[in-house]
Fold each of these.
Amino acid sequence: MDLLEYQGKQLFAAHGIAVPSGEVASTVEEAVAAADRIGYPCAIKAQVLIGGRGKAGGIKIAADAEQAREYADAILGMDIVGPHGEGPFRVDQVWIEGGSDIAAEYYASVILDRGEKKLLAMVSAKGGMDIEAVAEEDPDALVRRHIDPTRKFDAAAARTIVDDAGLDEDVRDQAAEVLVKLAEVASSEDASLIEVNPLIVTADRQVVALDAKVTIDGNALFRHQELAEIADTVDDPQEAMAKEKGLTYVKLDGNVGILANGAGLCMSTLDVVAQAGGAPANFLDAGGGSKAEAIVNALEVITSDQKVTAILFNIFGGITRCDEIAKGIVEASGQLDLKVPLVVRLDGTNSEEGLRILAEANLPNLNQEKTMLDAARRVVELAGASS
Amino acid sequence: MSIIVGKETKLVVSGLTGREGTFHGLRNRDYGTDLVAGVTPGKGGQDVEGVPVFDTIKESVEQAGANTSMIFVPARFAAPAIDEAIESGVETVIAITEGIPVLDMLKTYWKAKEAGVRLIGPNCPGVLSPGKANVGIIPAQFFDQGKIGVVSKSGTLTYQIGNELKQAGEGNSSIVGIGGDPIVGSDFIDILTMYEADPETELIVMVGEIGGDAEERAAEFIASEISKPVVAYIAGFTAPPGKQMGHAGAIISGSSGTAQAKKDALEAKGVRVGESPTETAKIAVETLRS
């Protein structure tokens, strides 16, 4: 789960990391009122879960109330696409904070290195720009050091990283302290990524986190009540509905609804549909041991997306029993007014029984295919072109 | 031969008295796995259909001779249960549980390393050595005994590929689910190493997916250390960046962890990568018979 910038900054502040003070606003009026309280110049920053906001026009400095109104009006409701094509993300909130007098811009992060199975601390004196580009063009400018999981990460350990990164000497102790606290945020809040870009030095030589990118491990939310509440508020309508029903659903752009059992098989199903020339509308993993009720719920979520023009069921029953899936499909057809064709491929545990149940029900609009590839081709043909 | 589980496996199941634990534990026994004990704190002295239950894993090692532990404990209690298994004296720990906090696993990973215990999972379907032993939730009926070793991040996708191999008349030495979490006890490289040393295994099928760089690391390793042919499949070409696709580890972060990058890395080292599960099975069969 990713946090918005202001949520990350609140987390930083709670752990004693200096951040500019500010307010969040979701209307132009609120934004102007907040800017008036904070004073000018102030920064008006789009709150979306993606980098590259500045380039997209989502961060502006307002010199007076008139500009604050103009920028808040432009930014609220804007759609921002990420540098790697993520999104688009609609801007529902802006964060307004006092303008900072910037003497230097650094970069600091603590992330989980999956390959090495350690936390990785990174510091650079070249902050304020795309750090992937810095790492590529000038690898030595980004100091990367793993945190020994068996020892406490203290100011002395952090200081060697800061020294090697060549930050200004007078602020190295402060920067090292920030790095220690970032590592503390990682372990005490179950964050698998914390990135501060830029970490600034102000004109009066204070080290302040001017941005915050934080990813919290969704599996650890049970022990972070406040973060769990944030997690409940960030989904789109279909994703929220799926979550409520306990389904793993990710919305995509296309028109072919997909239901499969197991994350890997579901991803593979999306790929095969795309290879057949189709555009998947969603990822939906019905999970292991799916019962009829889960299928009804899943179909309800998939069909609530108006773009869907055909649905593919790709089930390989292991623990999941195909007869249960078939019952679910029959039940769902009775409960929901399914207007789009279904293509069903059932294989694995109790598939013969499942196929028999479907044949007996003789549902209109239901097509059976024996293999994953044939099923993908059929559903693409039935779905027609994606609008 | 086979790897990780076999005729010598003496299994203890943590969480045997729970609904899922009972179902799968007994299913493993029915397959022929030597299930020697269950563990549930406070329920020592009871039994589950004749299988003795102990309070601790250590007791099951000392009194029932357990050498392999399977963890079927709910997520928030699972990391301590794995830690207990690591310290109990078993050689292998297979963690099925999904949803363990990743920083808990980070600590547990290093405990296993230090103790020299082989950890498989978490968030995995377990290990099956056809005709010998099954530890976990892999449905054994879709796999025959044979010469192909399978290692995979995904459960159902593996069943799909295994079934296609079976229909083509080929079987498996072992099927290892390494799990779909960001931190897993054994990576592709660990399992590839074991298959390389296993005389029964003649070809290896590796099933990866988006997220992390385990496939890229495996590609490097295959080029320098693995003499047996490897055929791969990668899922998630259509996954959008920044979205978690079911598995906690299946997420493209920025530009890293994409399916295309993994495919390119493997192909650059001469590993053939199938377009679909069906094609992957076909390539594996052709390669084995050529």
Note: Chain B is about 35% helix and 25% strand.
Amino acid sequence: MVDLYSLLSHLRSCPEVFFAGTSQFQHGSIHTYALVADCFRLVSGDLLLEENAIPDKEILSKLEEKSRTAIQVSCWFFSYEAFHRQPGLLAGITTFMLRKLPELADYVDTGQWIEDEDRNEEFVRAALDCCGILPDGESEIEAADRLDALSTIKRQQVLKESSDAFERMVEIRRKMAEQKAREAANVYGRE
Amino acid sequence: MTAEILKQNWQSKWDKARTTWSPFVKLREPVWCLSSSEARKEGLTGSFAMIRLSDHRIVIDLEEVLKLDVGGCALQVLAHEIGHHIYTPANLHDNAILLSRIQWGLAGIENRTAFVANIYSDFLINDMLQRSKGLDMAVVYQKVNKGIEFSKLWTLLMRTYEYLWRLSRGMLTGSSHFQSPSIDADASLLASLIRSYSRNWLDGAGRFTALLFPYILEDEEYQKARLSMLIYLDAEAAGLNGSIIAGITEIDDEAVKGNVDPRREALGIRGEDKIPANGIGISERGGTGPQQRYLEPGVYIDLLRKINPVLDEQELLNNYYREIALPHLVDFPVEQINPVSYNLPEGTGNWDFGDSPDEIDWLESAVQSPEFIPGYSTVKRVYGPDNDSSSVSSPLNVYIGVDCSGSMGNPRFTFSWPVLAAAIIGLSALRAGAKVMACLSGEPGSFLESEGYSTSEKEVLTVLTSYLGTGYAYGIPRLKTPFGFPVKDKSHVIVVTDDDIFSMLSAETKTGESNWDIIEQSLKNAGGHGTLVLHSRPDWHRNEVKRLVQMGWEIYYVTNEKELLDFARSFSAANYHSKQIKNQGHG
């Protein structure tokens, strides 16, 4: 159990440098792999953690730039003290970094994770969910419902499904406006 | 608990509610209504509280408060109502802007504008009170929601509050059977929107409206939604009894930009938007009037009457053309007058032999002495001039005749360039201190004219913006009313009409005097300048136009903005800068 609000605040205080470019060849950019490796060693509490326990360089390099930036932000997030020396979390963190974040990166700009209140909370809850941790004072059902409410992916699916119906409604709206304009023109003369 | 005790209880919470927002808030204590019948007299129906922006009051129906069991929520309810006065909509002007932006997104269902505005304001205030001021607003909803009729919109709104305040599912939505993933998705977007626009709340109105639109589009859905939300509608008539709000005639660019659906934004749909970007009240070419940036008059009137249903339609129409005319007012022609200096008697002086005998004032001389001794007891009257200024500027009066036949559009429904042209001249004249006589004429049929020359803007605009729709042209014989004989005070004559005027000029008359004679003689009798503003083309009726020009009439064609501005400029230049009349002895 961890305090949700402390985590939200911690994520919001993510330093600007974590949003810098991720190319390992450009001056001033961050080496994503180095960050991830540090993060995993911090969480495992094992500074000599073997490389095969850390996400593969090649996998990281195949990800899109925005996904790698989101992973860098997650490295900051998992640097929170409550995650230190918790080797049991590594599998969840790997899932979060390599599956969840790339999926979300299609819809959420990296900056939104700290600037938008809802996305900020979604990030934290999704990370906790992957790690199997419940926020303080919440039952499993409550936590799942709250995450569900914030889920960008789910919202996108629902919006896409209802999009056709909505387009029809927009069409009705357009026709109504046109009809109204025609009636006005017919009644009120030629000007 | 009785209503009287409840009143004392709520009165004791008033100061705290006020200071919840700021200790500097100055607002009169609410009107406490002990019974619902009292509340109805104050205009409160449906809900248990309401606000009035016109006199900055809050009205509370204590009987209804008891019924709803929200007696223990005095602080929340009072703070909420205060929020309407100091946060949103706060004042009549912002209320008008809010309604105009919401109306923009409600094509075809504009009658729901105030309903949507009230819900939007409530969201902003409640979220501010719950999250920033630490008040438990959720408990008010939990109490009031008991026994409420569920609707889709109600479920969406309650679900949004659950999202906003991190409440468990069902805490406010209860057992509503309308809950669905689609409503959840919309609620999540609404919650984000309320948070994002809490400071620049006017800018979020368009997006908010777009999110609610599908929930109130169908009449049946809307009626159900209204029924379930009725108890919460405390600011629907907030603008009642307020005055006309200035600056609403112009199309609000922010309203157009903000007319965006957050669902589409979330899906990343950009570019070609199928939602008509021009919204309602804006024709296909953009807006209407100068620079196409004004609402159509009908839309303007509808909007203002939504804000305040008791506003007079004619007054609104006057204001519409006045606001559009104001930026185009011109220097009004004046004439230079060397006024006659009247000689006024100033007393008496001695009459001497060198003076003319007819100057002797016999009465005054007899008062001085019954014996008339020329040069000794005779007096004469002494006169002096009444002013010493050598010349003054005086604007000419203006007669404006407007064609109001069936061929002219009704300026109430469609923007009218000719009426705007007439309004510009009329208002310019009044501003310069001239008097204006206006006449609407659609003949054969009917006419409407002001009672002689007037200095009343209202009277002039009312005549100009009225509509008869009879006959086929301006009735030339109308000119005989003011110009049947030479007038003492010179006048400009302006007739706003279309090319049907030429049929009228050539029409047979029963008096033997042709309309050509009348128009010529009227201009002479007016003593000023004659202007025909035609909603026509220069290449039509060339011969007739030539004849009018020979009589001294100036012709202007006004069918679009450029021509209107040219007309106003030329009218001013021709009559003001180069034709200042030296009118010796006229007065």
Note: The two ends of chain A are 72 Å apart (CA to CA).
